[in-house]
Automatic annotation (TrEMBL):
Span of domain Apiosidase-like catalytic: 33-362
Keywords, comma-separated and alphabetical: Signal
Organism for this UniProt entry: Sphingomonas kyeonggiensis
InterPro entries linked to this entry: Apiosidase-like_cat_dom (IPR025277), Collagen-bd_put (IPR024749), GH (IPR017853)
Classification via Gene3D superfamilies: Glycosidases
Record domain Putative collagen-binding: where: 365-455
Signal peptide (from-to): 1-23
Stretch list, region Disordered: 91-115
Pfam families associated with the record: Apiosidase, Collagen_bind_2
Signal is among the record's keywords: yes
Record keyword Phosphoprotein present: no
Name of the protein in question: DUF4038 domain-containing protein
Amino acid sequence: MHAGSILLAALAAAAAVAAPAAAQTPPLSVAPNGHYLLAGGKPFFWMGDTGWLLLSRTSRAEAEQYLLTRKRQGFNVVQIMVLHTEKMTNPATGPALVDGDPGRPRTTPGNDPVKAGEYDYWDHLDWVAKRAEELGIYLALVPAWGSIADGGKLNLQNAPAYGRFLAERYKNQPNIIWLNGGDTRSEMRTAVWDALGSTIKRYDPGHLMTFHPIGRTDSSWQYHDAPWLDFNMFQSGHRSYAQEGASAIGEDNWRYVATDWIRLPTKPVIDGEPSYEGIPHGLHEANQPRWLAPDARRYAWWAVMAGAFGHTYGENHVMQFFTPGADTANFEPITPWQQAIEAPGANQMQYLRRLIESRPMLERVPDPSLIIDNGTRYDRVLASRGKGYAFVYTYTGRPFSVRLGAITGKQVRAHWYSPRDGQSVAIGTFNNTGQHRFDPPGETAPGNDWVLVLDDARTPRAGQ
């Protein structure tokens, strides 16, 4: 048997154990409060990964390996580029387009991967979508990367035809989310993106849609009122405080969330592309330090504590499916994606999802007033609360004071929760009045991050 066939058979056998055959991806919708999402009417926490080039750089067996691993790690959304360039292709399927024209998708009769000439690029996307659905994973698809519109290949003439093709092909595939745009300035080619978004929404009204903007910008700046935009997405980007100079935002991704939280009409918001684990600071600047797992955790916890409905993680080698020796390498990669997929940050995202899902999700609101002595930059402490619970995240593990009385109960029960391994350290029970100073375990230092969990002492102990 061919080595690829052996791997595929082994992965398929593992899948039978890893997920039930009829795993569900219920329809997503915006919750009545406008801040969060529902899946089949139940609260949904988006734990996403950037698998951007999955379609062009993986075989079926490799895509299976990727999806199974991310499923095990607790991810339930994968962001993928449908067209990275107008020459988008997969070695096993050939090009996605005829003559590089988005208005002319290259489709073939049949979809048998064994028969020559039958299995095309769109059949491969069909298979990935269905396999992800079986694993309970949603695909957030970018129809076209921004450079395709900037170069004129996607334009007002062909955007409607391409949008209709996508909408009609995938409107009945339940686990689809649309990310209009693609790392691009929202004020550029606005009419093209409007045409594409409006067309997809017209023929596929059942799937949610947003806009994926360029770094350090937010979809709400240009498209908040667009009828096709169901939720906001920002890209907090890959530069450090030092590389931002006098920027008022810098690495403070929580500021985008705080701003969008109070916009009207109310729409959910998420950081769709923070600094990738394993990528140099600033992306294109060689010999810079690389973002590590503590940074990935900080971006995730800051955003969610500020009110984001979920978070998207990314790893440099995985998002581009890096293979040593390939001429497609970008951003100083050093590790094969099959190894990088087990990066510490990727395995630690599940602890964020686990804690958020352990308490009533839809009632949670950001509440910076809980912190009496807040700091700036890495010393910033972020807090959110529900009716009978509160979460407080510190990236450095520095001591801080909390205003009590904001949640229910005459007494509160407190413990520390580790974003690194999900373990808990009991603190105790005390009166829910006045203020209290908390000192996290360990020494104060970047990456000694902890979450203070406060619960109404009358409630049963949750899993965390």
